[in-house]
Design goal:
Keywords: Hydrolase. It contains 19 helices and 39 strands. By secondary structure, it is of the alpha/beta class. The longest helix is centred in the first third of the chain and has 21 residues.
Length: about 850
């Protein structure tokens, strides 16, 4: 019987037939990425896969090359649910099928509470309404493609440090109106097949164990029928999660829900067999949805594949360019005209760097990548324009990986790994004869559980290759990081010892060391031998003698770069700028700075980036700056530069998408999905962002993002919703219909006209904000985004009529006294414009009789 036959199974009957042990097994994962199969009853296993900006597949190590899409903040910046749904249907769902995955672990709908949050790039916005609507579009697209979506991280996982222990202390109104709202809207408009719980506590209780959130809110209020799963290793007990409504514990490694633990809990009457079977039933309902949605996955061979279609590449480029935000453009510096330029200097640490996404679960092995420099080169090819390049200032946190600098003895890019068993499971002594030999084309090797068959619990991986020869003698600095212990030898000489004594760090999801560095003098035209020995048992560190086994997250990373004099680097870039007709500076962050596992410590660009920009623009006033970051950054040189483009993380098509905007092939239409502050002190959560004795106080309350800046009359660097175009637009004639209240809902339409008053066609986002009555006895945010639409490809001189619809969500707040949503009688203000700080159209409407509502 093919696994897809489970689509026709009677789930209730199967639950009746389950033994207690089978039910227990169904509530926990198998390995890292699968649910449990029960062959006796024809229940197939379902495979899941990360993630937010692409489908990695089941391997962090030597994974299947995949499409990497723009980061979630970039998708949020499109303000375009139609395009995001297209992403889900035409890119993500087909990619999931190529990875043999029936359920993807995305989207992330947490709130951009503070741009320092290490995982901020994975969330769509600081605004709950935009987050919810974009999430729903993402989910609808994926699920229309027959693949399930898993909305995460429910709820309050808005930072990374101490994420499994901290308590998000948040008042009831902001919990409902800000942090739960994206999940609520997604449930209303898309019904995700699964929801993943956050690691953290909310108001004292771990979410994976919280009956209020998992049962009362999700199941009873919102009538959620999907499956609730844990984040990986985000379960902290047996009975509490089972009783609270956590259906599935993931992964199946080092899990709580073993036959022994759960049966003992049943015997101790801490949990009932009935509760276990209720959890198992929800898992089976998810399996059945997968069998119905894409039966070919369950019936397939389970192999992961890569397919690149030209129309998919074109779509990825279109989505990436559509998310780019033009933040400044004095004197029509942009778009650049190659016909007027003989020489363009490209400078900056990100110009040639491999920067396509943030780090952690979002990371994947890209099937292809176009760097900003290559995209610019493609755009000016054949146009008699000379390109020069100077890095100017180094911006990496860890030394760049060496995938393109290492070669095997046979000339392949990469190196050869040999896997060695140890004498026994407790030994640190490897057996010389390898159990497996493997070609490896990565130098950031997060092995996770991807070890060869027959390996012992403790094992050694030896990596050998040759460094690409240099034309002259040069000092080369290596960097070695390990979740385990490692040594680096060059030509047999020990260069880095990250084995004998270690420094605990944040790498490899918090399990690895800090980067240890060493310098070796390379000889001209010489193939130097590189040898790394790695063992999956970490070494002793100061104040931590624990030599723990890395059984689920071992990894080793080798980076390196030629040693350069920082002053010479800077001087070269400045001279290139002086000699050029125009300068494109590409700077920003990367996956080392913005990643799952830890938070950023500063909003500033790294290293001497700010100094580089100031010096380059002083040398050549025709300087265009392109910034890459998944969240907000500070820009102290903003008044010095004539043009600034923010490019987020754009995935495979990065360089071509940036070039499309710089040279005018695409008229930018992205809008900031989060506020850019002038300084860190202006951020709403400043001073109470960090975990203090295990508590994170959400002291800003309702005033998250732009609501705070307006409420406090603080001018941001760039406001939420802001983004320029190469054309201009005017809005006029705002009209509101009379509000209609029926069946516990409200209906109101807003209409207006938009005119392209410039000389080229362009797209514009119209944003509608609502202010609750000033007669209210409660404090409310000054304005709240409650509707938006994207007007596409409006021709020069053209006028279009636009309609926006409002419902009860536009006028409601959470009434703590009555545990319900309330709509007050009174006069409501509507403001419409093109950003939260540019709202020229104003109108009011009145609700003569208030009402309350519950559910969604």
């Amino acid at each position: 019987m093919p696994p897809s036959d489970f689509a026709n199974a009677n789930v209730d009957e199967i639950v009746e037939q389950l033994t207690t042990d089978e039910a227990i097994l169904l509530t926990g994962g198998v390995g890292f990425w699968k649910t449990h199969a029960v062959e006796r009853l024809g229940i197939p296993a379902v495979k899941v896969s990360d993630g937010p900006n692409g489908i990695r597949g089941n391997h962090f190590f030597m994974g299947t090359p995949a499409k990497c899409l723009p980061s979630s903040t970039a998708l949020g910046a499109t303000f375009d649910p139609q395009v995001v749904e297209e992403v889900g249907l035409k890119l993500l769902a087909p990619e999931a099928k190529l990875r043999a995955a029936s359920l993807i672990l995305a989207p992330t709908a947490n709130i951009q509470r503070h741009p320092l949050g290490g995982r901020s790039f994975e969330s769509f916005s600081e605004d709950p309404y935009l987050s919810g609507i974009i999430s729903a579009a993402y989910i609808n697209g994926v699920q229309k493609g027959g693949v399930g979506a898993t909305m995460k991280h429910f709820v309050g996982n808005d930072k990374e440090n101490d994420r499994q222990g901290y308590d998000s202390v948040v008042a009831e109104r902001p919990l409902r109106e800000i942090y739960l709202m994206p999940f609520m809207l997604a449930q209303k408009y898309s019904e995700p097949w699964a929801i993943m719980t956050a690691y953290n506590r909310v108001n004292g209780v771990h979410v994976s164990e919280d009956p209020f959130l998992l049962t009362k809110v999700l199941r009873e209020e919102w009538k959620y029928k999907g499956m609730v799963m844990s984040d990986w290793f985000g379960v902290y007990s047996v009975d509490l999660g089972l009783n609270a409504g956590l259906d599935l514990e993931m992964p199946g490694i080092n899990k709580w829900r073993t036959l022994d633990f759960v049966n003992r809990s049943i015997q101790a009457r801490k949990v009932t067999t009935r509760a276990v079977k209720a959890r198992a039933k929800t898992v089976l309902e998810l399996v059945q949805k997968c069998a119905k949605g894409a039966p070919e996955i369950l019936d397939g061979d389970g192999l992961e594949r890569t397919v690149e279609l030209e129309e998919e590449k074109a779509l990825m480029r279109k989505i990436a360019s559509g998310s780019i935000v033009l933040l400044k453009n004095e004197n029509q510096t942009l778009p650049l005209q190659p016909s007027n330029l003989k020489k363009i200097a490209v400078v900056g640490g990100n110009a040639k760097a491999f920067v396509l996404s943030g780090g952690g679960s979002a990371a994947l092995k890209a099937s292809y990548f176009i760097s900003p420099y290559d995209g610019i080169a493609n755009a000016v090819a054949g146009k008699d324009v000379e390109l020069t390049f100077g890095e100017g200032a180094r911006t990496y946190k860890n030394l760049p990986t060496l995938e393109y600098d290492l070669f095997t003895s046979s000339g392949e890019r990469g190196w050869i790994g040999t896997w060695h068993r140890h004498e026994n499971d407790d030994s640190l002594v490897p057996i010389e004869e390898p159990v497996a030999t493997q070609y490896i084309d990565e130098t950031r090797i997060f092995i996770s559980t991807s070890t060869p068959v027959g390996i012992t619990k403790r094992w050694t991986l030896r990596l050998r290759g040759h460094l690409k020869p240099r034309p002259s003698d040069v000092d080369f600095e290596f960097g070695l990081t390990a979740a385990g212990r490692a040594k680096l030898f060059v030509d047999g000489q020990l260069v880095i010892d990250n084995w004998t004594r270690q420094r605990r760090g944040e790498s490899f999801f918090g399990s690895g060391t800090d980067e240890e560095k060493g310098v070796f003098r390379l000889k001209a035209n010489t193939k130097h031998e590189i040898f790394v020995e790695f063992c999956n048992v970490r070494g002793p560190a100061d104040n931590d003698p624990d030599e723990a086994l890395m059984d689920s997250n071992p990894g080793v990373r080798l980076g390196g770069a030629e040693v350069e004099d920082p002053e010479e680097l800077m001087a070269k870039a400045v001279q290139l700028a002086k000699d050029a007709d125009a300068v494109i500076a590409v700077v920003g962050l990367n996956a080392d700075w913005e990643t799952e596992g830890y938070d950023r410590t500063s909003l500033a660009l790294p290293g001497r980036t700010d100094e580089l920009i100031s010096k380059v623009v002083a040398a050549n006033p025709k300087t265009v700056v392109v910034t890459q970051a998944g969240s907000a950054i500070t820009l102290p040189w903003i008044n010095e530069v004539p043009a600034l483009v923010h490019a987020w993380y754009l995935g495979n098509a990065t360089g071509d998408a940036i070039a499309d905007v710089l040279f005018g092939a695409v008229n930018p239409s992205g809008k900031l999905s989060l506020t850019f502050p002038k300084r860190a002190e202006d951020v709403p959560a400043h001073g109470h962002f960090n975990s203090e004795n295990g508590k994170v106080n959400y002291a800003e309350g309702l005033f998250v993002g732009y609501k705070h800046y307006i409420h406090r009359n603080i001018e941001p660097l760039f406001p939420f919703g802001f983004g320029l175009s190469y054309t201009t637009f005017s809005l006029s004639d705002l009209q509101l219909s009379q509000p209609t209240i029926a069946n516990g809902d409200l209906s109101l339409d807003a209409t207006l006209s938009i005119t392209n008053t410039g000389s080229v066609s362009g797209s514009q986002v119209i944003q509608l904000y609502v202010s609750l009555p000033t007669t209210s006895n409660l404090t409310h945010p000054p304005i709240q985004l409650r509707a938006f639409t994207k007007v596409r490809d409006l021709q020069a001189g053209q006028t279009e009529k636009v309609s926006l619809s409002l419902d009860k969500y536009a006028v409601s707040y959470w009434e703590e006294r009555f545990q319900a949503w309330a709509v007050e009688k009174g006069v409501y203000a509507v403001q419409v414009g093109t950003s939260s700080a540019d709202l020229p159209l104003k109108a009011t409407f009145e609700i003569v009789k208030g009402f309350e509502w519950q559910g969604i």
